[in-house]
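Subject: Interface between my chains keeps coming out wrong

I've been trying for a while to get a sensible model of this assembly. When I model each chain on its own everything looks fine, but I need the whole thing in one frame so I can look at the contacts. Pasting all components below, labels as-is. Any help appreciated, I'm running out of ideas.
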Amino acid sequence: MRRFLALILCFLLISSGCEAAPKRYTAAYADVFDTVADFTVFGGTQEDFDKVSEAVHSELLRLHRIFDIYNEYDGLVNAKTVNDNAAGGPVVPPAELYELLESAVLWNERSGGALNIALGPVLSLWHDCREAEEPYLPDPDLLSECGQHCDISELILSGGSVSFADPEMSLDLGALAKGYAAEKAAELAESLGCEHFALSVGGNVVTRGEKPTGMWEIGIASPDGGILTTVRVAGECVVTSGDYQRFFEVDGVRYHHIIDPKTLYPASLWRSVTVICADSADADALSTALFCMDFESGSALAEKFGAEALWVGPDGETKRTEGFSDYEV
Amino acid sequence: MRSRLRNDILLISSIALAAALIFAAGAIFRHTKKGETVEVTLGGEHYASLPLSQDAELDIEGLCLLKIENGEAYVAEAVCRNQICVRHRPISAPGEVIICLPGRVAVRISGGPDFVV
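Reply #2:
Try treating it as a single job with all components included. I did that and got this:
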């Protein structure tokens, strides 16, 4: 009896000291989607993690190349190939690109034009202004001239092939590509046996399962620095579009990277919009669309997709969909 | 006989107490947030950790110059063309990040949420 008691007590002593918590593994990839991707996994061995991490990294690289509008790659038909050739006749891109374009056309309709991947000519003008040694403002006449060639109905998708009815048009997938790629890479990690992980591709965070200590905590940045609020998720995706993420200044005025298709200038309704929903591609599309939409139509669109959203207005005031605060810590 | 029983009780209770103490200590330390530290990675690999509370300068392989001043970290100089990291506001809240993409440098404040978006 006494031995039995002592055994139990020894077991208690040992188990109190060393709980076998699943190990945490992380990797960062700096060469995808002009941003940094972070991959965090709980559980398994280092060997398991290295295998999955390599697969996730190559999947992100593969999709990055497919959606790249600036570079060509040997033997690959990508977004640049489509931009350069689709005016001359049908181009057949990889299935992922075709799928993304189909979904982009849908999102354009759903958002009443607030999300438009055919804004290429306008975005490339702003891109040149921002990246110049001395950033400058685009010439207004040139800007409205470019705006004439941003009609997404001139994008013809038919049986897997892409063509442009307007020879001056071009596509920019920046609003959708990261969220879509994060979703695809997360699906791949899941299929390789990962159950508890988070993948962030430039601020598009996909979570699966929980951490050993509970749900994943995602801080929502305040546009003026620091953290505005923190949300807890397990399985959902979180993304923020903000005017502070990429911008340049001319004469003390800030010009950020999210261009309103209606005005062709940086959207000014909100400073940031955060979206929480089940699918990372939807979350990315929604956050960009909502950034260019008023609260009423934006919250109606979010509701349609079971998404929750947080808006930060020009004076720092916040608005939320009804269910957003349920996620807040 | 009686003293054996007393010894047993003493032994049992001291083991139980030790178990309780170790358990409590584990629980406390697991939930204590690490002191705020500036973590620097280069090409995804750990490069340096510096306390946020102490003013410092760190030359990251000639790619960026990281400065810590008054509890805030910022990139003062970078060799890249676009200078996005230099224009980034100083960071101090747990989870905040500054990234210099061309240099593959990430500066992150430790503690706090898993990600900041």
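Reply #3:
Confirming on my end. Residues 22-68+76-329 of chain A form a domain with the T-fold fold (CATH 3.10.520.10).
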